[in-house]
Amino acid sequence: MTALRASRAAAVAAGLLATCAAARATATPGYRPRVDYQLNCQGCHLADGAGEAGRVPSSRGMLGPCAIPLLCQKFLFCVPGVAESSLSDAATAALLNWMVHRLSDAPVPRDFVPFGAAEIASRRRIPLANVAAARASVQRELASQTPSRARSTAARSTDRSPM
To answer: Taking the domain 30-158, which CATH number applies?
Structure first.
């Protein structure tokens, strides 16, 4: 009788795992990045991305404008929370794309091309030597940004130099 119980328990467990996998595969497209944000970012950056003044920077004013200029992307891909994340490159790309569209006070630029896993993989392992200095550089870039300075997708995919 014990072998029969073990067999039934294994069958039930396999059924539950299959159900969970099917539910995850059919989940709405925005579900996973939202949950990844809640689990990996929200603790410091808060639910709305506002951060904590003097301690954790807000992502509200940076994400939309930062989606295009190469300097900004290098910063986004290399901040400690991204560079040191256990998320895959594909999940990180999906999360950053979700954040650009959902947590930015500024409109997303029309020429924004969603980040891809290969792009994240090529840059996220390049550590920032000084996060505060890099952030200040990005803020200067954003302050002086004009549409003609926006980087193309080709520039995004070919420039691999660290900040």
So the answer is: 1.10.760.10
